[in-house]
Write a structure and sequence with these properties.
By secondary structure, the chain is an alpha/beta fold. It contains 24 helices and 28 strands. It has a seven-stranded mixed sheet with strand order 5-4-18-17-16-6-7, sandwiched between helices. Helix 2 (about 80-100) packs across helix 20, helix 4 (about 140-150) packs parallel to helix 14 and helix 17 crosses helix 19 (about 410-420). The radius of gyration is 24 Å and the shape is globular. The structure holds iron/sulfur cluster (SF4). Iron/sulfur cluster binds near residues 16, 18 and 48. One of its GO terms (molecular function) is NADH dehydrogenase (ubiquinone) activity. This is Formate dehydrogenase subunit alpha.
């Protein structure tokens, strides 16, 4: 098509948490192409197949272009006035009759910071409850809890760019080649340039195949493996003694615990070779600039927070965090703005900037600015919301841009919760599985149609700019929330996204120096950014850790088994994850040409298991867990170990979360997506 491009808009990718900067080229109110922005700080001119090519969903025929309201059991198109009036009336009635805690909100890790700021302001001031959560509960809540406990702040310690000078990367529970491709490529480049690579993953991923040591540890054994590596670091004296002496606490307790984790013991728990453990510890221990990169394979476990803390121990023992030239520990956040949604206070126990709701002085500061009381009692976490709906304590659920019926574990339980609610409101671009349970669905804008900011996985605020107008009457979450608040008789203030970030910055010391103006002028800024004349802190803790005593806290955490173990009835362990060309529930990527590259999901199974069960490639198998059943198409591959199977959750036709369990991290309620015992038989 040789017709001229009518506009080019620079914005931030709305898929994964890497936060690539993209140029969106528009012709005739449609996207003609997306290219990575030359010289962009995060992606340096690169982008993956999702960010570059998966944009046709914006003009998909089934995009919602008007509100839907349920009449006689059917969702039908309505006017904005009818939808807003109904939502305002029902939320007001439920709040007034049953109290504010009868309403909960799930905000969106895909929405902008400003939308998340407004969402938590809405639920706290207009409804009067702290029951707001976002999908970080399902992925990196253990990172927020674990990194805060170890170092003081709920984010990674160093920027992605610091991988440029690492000589050894320990990659744990992450497959960035598929889930965070620009990071995957950066790691690969670094390894090809000579850096050593240790991969801890139950699957043989592309980077595992490239690694010096691949510890193919059994699902659920992370804490044992990390303790085993720490045992070896201490035993072979790969320690930064000066750092340990002056800037850490907890060494003696840790050393005592680690006596129980010699290589032979850990090898038996994790089903790895003890010699590989020793080799991995030596590579990491002898490196001058070791880096740790990890993902949901560490967090989405019954002991995910312990996993983060015992992984952080390795960085602390080596002095690889908070020191000049260090490379730190980097959690690969899943969704584009899961860091930002949490940073903005879309959580049940903290206000923006992780300021605790229980602190009277903090609440008072927000109350003065907002002119309304801020509730003190922590709200419900997402899994608690579902339980409360089924018990009758929760009567209304407001869901912004998350398809919880497909993405959350134990889908049957989620459906029961949605059906138990008296009233369900959604914002969505499509009639998702969750929308099918809603009473009102507002037609939502995509990230390509929004104004605001995202925070990527290395704590970098970046601008999001609208390249397109939303179709029909669709609108962004910011405007929808403003209109619902108005319909309930109370404004939210913050007439624009820039005003919302300004208000948030005025109330939140770690964001005090941030503004849309600065981001326009400077491109991106890391938080903490405490003043408008100071740069953001890309590397944390160079002076002191943000813990109460200013020291990094080593954690003595024992290995505890996962929530599920295989047995005679459920002999396989199911791991869930992501594929390169699709994203999360697939609602966007399945409506693009990416679908041709991967039109269906498969259940990966080891060839020896497939042969034993007489399951040729392409066979449909009934897969059953203690929690549900679904049919998946088997694909034998040595990428999974014997006794394990793997599937992604991108397709409603392969609803793998029918199977996943209700077990959650003991500290944060993050679901244990990575370990479910299942039974498999041909159809
Ligand atoms: Fe978007 Fe992530 Fe791909 Fe970058 S790596 S283009 S942020 S999906």
């Amino acid at each position: 098509d040789l017709r001229p491009i009518t506009s080019t808009t620079t914005t931030t990718c709305g898929y994964c948490g890497v936060g690539c900067t993209l140029d969106v080229h528009v012709r005739d109110d449609d996207i003609a192409a997306i290219t990575p922005t030359h010289g962009a700080p995060v992606n340096r001119g690169h982008a993956c197949i999702k960010g570059r090519f998966a944009h046709a969903f914006t003009r998909a025929e089934d995009r919602l272009t008007a509100p839907l309201v349920r009449h006689n059991g059917q969702l039908v198109e309505s006017t904005w006035d009818e939808a807003l009036g109904l939502v305002a009336q029902r939320l007001t009635d439920i709040r007034d009759q049953h109290g504010p805690d009868a309403i909960a909100m799930i905000s969106s890790a895909r929405a902008t910071n400003e939308e998340n700021y407004l969402a938590q302001k809405f639920i706290r001031t207009i409804i009067g409850t702290n029951s707001i959560d976002n999908c970080s509960r399902l992925c990196h809540a253990p990172s927020a809890a674990g990194l805060t406990a170890s170092f003081g702040l709920a984010g990674g310690t160093n920027p992605l760019d610091d991988l440029d000078h690492t000589d050894c990367i320990l990659l744990a529970g992450a497959n960035p080649t598929e889930a965070h491709p620009v990071v995957g490529a950066r790691i690969k480049q670094r390894v090809l340039a000579g850096a050593r690579l240790v991969v801890i993953d139950p699957r043989r991923t592309e980077l595992a195949a490239l690694a010096d040591v691949h510890l193919q540890a059994a699902p659920g054994s992370n804490v044992a493996v990390f303790n085993g590596l720490a045992h070896l670091l201490i035993g072979e004296d790969h320690l930064d003694h000066a750092f340990l002496d002056h800037r850490t606490t907890g060494f003696d307790d840790l050393a005592t615990l680690l006596a129980d984790y010699p290589p032979e013991t850990v090898a038996a728990i994790a089903d790895v070779r003890s010699t590989d453990l020793v080799a991995a510890a030596r590579l990491f221990g002898r490196a001058q600039h070791p880096a740790i990169v990890y993902g949901l394979g560490v967090t989405e476990h019954a002991h995910g927070t312990d996993g983060v803390r015992t992984l952080a121990n390795l960085a602390i023992l080596r002095g690889a965090v908070g020191t000049t030239g260090c490379c730190g520990i980097l959690p690969l956040r899943g969704q584009n703005n899961v860091q930002g949604a949490s940073d903005m206070g879309a959580l049940p126990d903290v206000l923006p900037g992780y300021q605790h709701i229980a602190a009277p002085a903090i609440r008072a500061r927000f109350e003065r600015a907002w002119g309304r009381p801020v509730p003190e009692r922590p709200g419900l976490r997402i899994p608690q919301m579902f339980d409360a709906a089924i018990s009758g304590d929760l009567r209304a659920l407001y869901v912004i841009g998350e398809d919880i019926a497909q993405s959350d574990p134990n889908s049957g339980h989620v459906r029961a919760a949605l059906d138990a609610c008296e009233f369900v409101v959604c914002h969505d671009m499509f009639r998702s599985r969750t929308a099918e349970h809603a009473d009102v669905v507002f037609p939502a804008a995509s990230f390509l149609e929004k104004d605001g900011t995202f925070v990527n996985f290395d704590r970098r605020f970046q601008r999001v700019r609208p390249a397109l107008a939303p179709p029909g009457q669709a609108s962004d979450d910011f405007n929808i929330l403003q209109q619902v608040a108005q319909a309930m008789g109370t404004g939210l203030g913050c007439p624009t996204p820039a005003a919302a970030l300004a208000e948030c910055a005025s109330l939140t010391p770690v964001f005090a120096g941030l503004s849309h103006q600065r981001l326009e002028a400077e491109g991106s800024l890391h938080w903490p950014c405490p003043a408008s004349d100071r740069p953001g802190e890309a590397v944390l803790y160079l002076d002191r850790f943000a813990t109460p005593d200013g020291k990094a806290a080593l954690a003595a955490r024992p290995y505890l088994p996962p929530g599920e173990q295989p047995d005679a009835d459920f002999p396989f362990l199911l791991i869930t994850g992501r594929r390169l060309v699709h994203y999360n529930t697939g609602s966007m990527t399945r409506r693009t040409a990416n679908l041709e590259l991967l039109p269906t999901e498969t259940l990966e199974i080891h060839p020896s298991d497939a042969a034993r069960l007489d399951i040729p490639d392409g066979t449909d198998v009934i897969t059953t867990s203690r929690w549900g059943q679904t049919t998946l198409t088997a694909h034998p591959t040595t990428d999974v170990a014997p006794g394990q199977v793997f599937a992604a959750f991108h397709f409603p036709t392969a609803p793998v979360n029918e199977l996943t369990s209700p077990h959650t991290d003991t500290a944060t309620d993050c679901p244990e997506y990575k370990v479910t015992a299942v039974h498999i038989q041909p159809v």
